[in-house]
Amino acid sequence: MSEGGRFTGKVVLISGGASGIGAAAAALFVAEGARVVLGDLQIEKGAALAASLGERALFVSLDVTSEASWRAAVAQSQAKFGPLTTVVNSAGISVPASIEDETLEGFRRTLSINLDGTFLGCKVAVEALKSGKGGAIVNIASTLGARSGAIFPAYSASKGGVRLLTRSVALHCAARGYDIRVNAILPGAIHTEMVEGYIAAGQAAGATREQVIEGFASGHPLKRLGRPQEAAAAILFLASDEAAFITGADLPVDGGFLA
Ligand SMILES: NC(=O)c1ccc[n+]([C@@H]2O[C@H](COP(=O)([O-])OP(=O)(O)OC[C@H]3O[C@@H](n4cnc5c(N)ncnc54)[C@H](O)[C@@H]3O)[C@@H](O)[C@H]2O)c1
What we know:
By secondary structure, this protein is an alpha/beta fold.
């Protein structure tokens, strides 16, 4: 679909767009008529995905921890497709380690990518969207930003931060009268490369692949992992005009995990 989709005329920049939830969102946005820019550290993978999505997709190299990199990505997006309307902050990492095992360096790395990266993404997005046609920002927090676990001090701190960062940016945009809505989704376990990393770690510790997957699934009332497209569908909803009266919200996409 190129004409008449929900996102025809929209220009979407997605950090972490080369993989997982960001990649699934890119494909859905393109299918719904948007022009989409995928920003990621994974250059080959991101470029191949953008090529497969056709002429309404572009890959740009992006390191979300660098303000200069964000500014270059926005400039490339606008040069190719015109004013941005939508920014999705999906880049993130998860490296499980308890408070006794985590290092300050590791903690800071997680915070730098997940929280600083989303802060910078929001900062450049507000600047770009307010001088264009307004629009929407969607951040990817996590159920682990609402509940935690013993091995997630860094990840939960980062994602709890993303939830409240989202609300603050939403309130600022509302107070200033910018036509910019800012929301987050809270995914449960979604079967992406991130979860494949957990599966590999579980296998290294002696569990079978099936046991690790079952362990994740059993924590979710719907008794399965989520699919990247299911998280992406929630991102598109929050980015769409259907969500015109929704700002500062966080939407669980978690098979009932937080219920
Ligand atoms: N998969 C899950 O179960 C799950 C659950 C809750 C939240 N999330 C969040 O969803 C988002 C997407 O994760 P995913 O599951 O799709 O993982 P993924 O590993 O498939 O994708 C993450 C992408 O972020 C990119 N990235 C990492 N550091 C970056 C940096 N500094 N600059 C630019 N890009 C960078 C990676 O290269 C990768 O392409 C993350 O923020 C993650 O924390 C995932």
